[in-house]
Amino acid sequence: MAIIGNLPGERLAGIAADTFHKVQHGIITLDEWAAFNQRKNPFEFERNEHGHIIVSVTGLDLTGAQEIERLLAAGFRVSDWAKSCFLSPKPNGYDTKHRLVASQSYKIALMPTKEIEIAADRTTENLRNRGPELYGYGKPLGGIIPRIRERVSNTQMKEMGFYYIAAPHDPIEDSDGGPHVLRADRFVDGLWVRASFVRPGDQWGVGGAFAFLVPASVPLAPAT
């Protein structure tokens, strides 16, 4: 783990801003705070044998409405499509299918979309299948995205090389009936939770990651 005092000024400033944002809004973990007090970078992540970044989060059993309220109160931004997914009353809606188990620890592997080099092949179906078939990862629930958004700052996403982190969960129908998946996005105007319309053949940008569950950490999302 890097010593904070040895980091370049710009990176140190970003880590300090991330830390104080989390302290201000009460979303910093005890491990992160302890590391910061020891002058260590609290936001470094481990990598697995595949070179994928591993993020650990703790589940909160919140309704979609509670997720929106929590995210906005902490200074995050939530797109209209994401709000529609969180509030969806459909049988595959957030409240019915995508809430995490309270206090359950979830390990999440971030698979870069750039692993599929040819743009025409970088489709929802191919990326969604690559995680389980090549690496043995499990399908996540949509509830991991709010926790990833709280855990991973824009500074960290920049260091990771990601503009977005999307979860290949079972799609949620929004108010118009379109299938969407939730994602965390890095923009200059803030830290966003958004939703993407998904069909099997839709292509994804090269600068992102798909977030899968590490199977040994939690029960996998049920097959549908």
Describe this structure in words.
The chain has helices spanning 9-25, 30-37, 64-73, 80-86, 94-97, 124-135, 144-151, 154-160, and strands spanning 46-47, 53-58, 77-78, 105-112, 164-166, 172-173, 179-187, 190-197, 208-213. By secondary structure, the protein is α+β, with helices and mostly antiparallel strands. The chain has two domains: 1-44, no CATH class; 49-213, no CATH class. Strands 1, 2, 3, 4, 5, 6, 7, 8 and 9 form a nine-stranded mixed β-sheet that branches. β1 and β2 form a beta hairpin. The longest helix has 17 residues, at 9-25. The radius of gyration is 17 Å and the shape is globular.
The string of secondary-structure elements, in order, is HHEEHEHHEHHHEEEEE
How much of the sequence lies in strands comes to 15-25%
Radius of gyration: 17 Å
Percentage of residues in helical conformation: 25-40%
The averaged pLDDT comes out at: 85
Query: What gap, in angstroms, lies between the N and C termini?
Result: 40 Å
Indicate the topology.
Layout: H1 9-25, H2 30-37, E1 46-47, E2 53-58, H3 64-73, E3 77-78, H4 80-86, H5 94-97, E4 105-112, H6 124-135, H7 144-151, H8 154-160, E5 164-166, E6 172-173, E7 179-187, E8 190-197, E9 208-213
